[in-house]
Amino acid sequence: MTGSFPAAPQMASPDLIRRPLRDLLTGLPALPVTESGQPDYAAADPDVLVSLARAAELVLQIVHDNFSAIGLLHACTAQQIAHGDIGGANHAVAVGRLQVELGEVLAYAQTLSFECRRYTADYFSDGRGADDG
Predict the structure, then answer these.
(1) Which of the 8 DSSP states describes residue 14?
(2) Which of 42, 39, 17, 19 is nearest to 28 (CA)?
(3) Could you please report the per-residue DSSP string of 16-53?
(4) What is the pTM assigned to this prediction?
(5) Residue 94: CA count within 13 A, CB half-sphere
């Protein structure tokens, strides 16, 4: 999906907002695999690799940026628990579990991005590929 994030929420439309995780997940089936189930970057279409790398890099940026926001929420919850309000403890556990899973996404997305970029380091798109953005 092409476009950039709008400056104001009222400008948000499906055509303007990028969905990098969705783009990453929908692009993965186009990545060929070896008999062992590992991605076969050498056999992949370079446009697919470039598209996957872009999506993975944006996912990395978004998840990294939001880890700090989650950390701030944990700090607020810790203060509430210290004052005797344990209602937020369940949410803190759930968010912690989400952070663990997102950490796994980060590790995979980073590896995927590096490999896609490595196999397309000298590739220049003709503008007709999987992702023209």
Answers:
(1) T
(2) 39
(3) T---HHHHHHHHGGGS-B-TTS-B-GGGS-HHHHHHHH
(4) 0.67
(5) 5
Q: How far apart are CA 7 and CA 10, in angstroms?
A: 9
Nearby residues of 98 by Cβ (< 8 Å), 6 or more positions away: 70
**The token pair that represents 85 in the structure block:** 């309000």
DSSP summary character for residue 11 = G
Instruction: Kindly state the tokens that stand for 33.
Output: 């695999």
Domain boundaries, the chain: 20-28+44-118
* pLDDT digits 0-9 by tens, 33-53: 999 999 999 999 999 999 999
H/E stretch holding 62 reads helix 46-82
Angle, helices 46-82 vs 20-27, to 10°: value is 130
